Amino acid sequence: MSTAILIDGGFYRKKAFRIWGEKTAKERADELMHYCKCHISDRDGDAKRNLYRIFYYDCPPISKNVYNPITQRNEDLKKSNTYKWSEAFLKELSHRRKVALRLGKLSDISTGYRLKHDVFKDLCSQKRKFETLTVSDIQLDIVQKGVDMKLGLDILNLSYKKLVSQIILISGDSDFVPAAKMARREGIDFILDPMGGSISDDLIEHIDGMMSHWRDARMTK
User: Fold this and answer.
1) Rounded to an integer, what distance in angstroms lies between the CA atom of residue 180 and that of residue 167?
2) Considering only Cβ atoms within 10 Å of each terminal Cβ, which end of the chain, N or C, has fewer?
3) Which residues contact 11 (CB under 8 A, 6 or more apart)?
4) What is the pLDDT along the chain (221 residues), one digit of tens a residue?
């Protein structure tokens, strides 16, 4: 059985941080490769999986000056630790065997800071006052462009050209339902890994099963 693993990068990074904590770019890349290896080493009945390729979908970090309403200063995002980590992480993945990077871009038009959801609720309910806000109460609001389209097109290409017999998608997004439906019509075994997260009923309806390895104790070593 030839298997392609497709990874929604933004989704994976957030989940991995919550499950296994903060890591260096190399450690996170090693962890991701091991996580994919767990999927390939798994068994589907008596059929052994052979890795076709790992497709990783994300955006390179944005380099822009953004106004911070708390410090009331412009910040150069290119000098941030997040920028440096993201660049190093993508570079690590680009050097790994059988990994294909599919990069979109981050919109530099609508980029800015916004209040975190819980902080906004506290302000509206008057549990907090504006003068108590700190830098930790805001977060960058950045919109990805092109990532979902690249992922969907790859599912179509892999399916129509019969390059694989199975696709494992690491994501929790129901936006991929149309592509999953088409892949199944082409005879592809479509597996979803939401890494322990909940997914919508319409997504469950259009996949062939769920399989996760986020509880694997070896990932914490």
Assistant:
1) 9
2) C
3) 170, 171, 172, 173, 195
4) 799 999 999 999 999 999 999 999 999 999 999 999 999 986 555 457 899 999 999 999 888 888 888 888 888 888 889 899 999 999 999 999 999 999 988 776 667 888 888 999 999 998 989 889 998 888 877 777 778 889 999 999 999 999 999 999 999 877 788 888 999 999 999 999 999 888 877 778 889 999 888 876 456 54
Q: Which of 157, 133, 68, 144 is closest to 110 using CA atoms? A: 144
The SS3 call for residue 85 is helix
Pairing state of beta strands 166-170 and 99-103?
unpaired
Task: Report residue 102 as tokens.
Answer: 């599919």
Q: How far apart are CA 25 and CA 209, in angstroms?
A: 31
Size of the chain, expressed as the number of residues it contains: 221
Residue 62 neighbours by CB under 8 Å, 6+ apart: 77, 83, 106, 108, 111, 142
